[in-house]
Amino acid sequence: MTTSKVIKYLFFAFNFFFFVAGIIIFSLSIHAKNKKVEYQISDEALPAINLLIFVSAVTLIFGFLGYCGTIRESRFLLALFFVGLLLMFLMMLAVGALGAISRTPAAQEVVKGNMKQLLPLSEQPKKIQELLQKVEITGFCCGLFVGHLDWGNSSVVPDSCNCTDTSKNCTDLGSREVYSTPCMTYIMTWLDQVSDSLMGTAFAFGILMILGMSFALVLLCQFKRSENSIM
What dihedral do alpha carbons 70, 73, 79, 80 form, nearest 10°? Predict the structure, then answer.
């Protein structure tokens, strides 16, 4: 029994597309990451871009393996291609699952519980304070749960809490106004957006990997039958 040429050519075309798509996605992802300011790419999208860079780089390798395995009718290379895609698929599944779990109320309560351990914020190390201040500037908020009081008292509230946008809710501290909205809402929204981008990326690549594994499995079976018929 000869190997089906239709399946072989389809798999060859798939690997060609897989390889070219890997090159394009890898190049565009690197370019977008380096030019994130020009393209106005938010921090929420960066995890998905990093995932795209990793997956597309591995896609190049697997696409080449699948191509060589098809041309040479090598069961070893096709098996390597199948196992590699299976491992990548499991990783994508784990990423999607983590993204989904992070949106559950239980996971959000864990995050809030960890954040409460940072209070008062003024007693945290300088690096943590600087990170929180960046969040306050970006999110037009102050503190984590109850506003400026999370820093301890009004004398230690950083300038990042200063109300520079009068359209936002602000609180008068006497000498200045600060944002009255806590940052926890902004942080949880950011986490939801990150999980959405990761799940979307994992789902798209997962479908391609299932298709690739199906082609590889069919060819492996046909190569095996061909060898048995020759014997």
Answer: -60
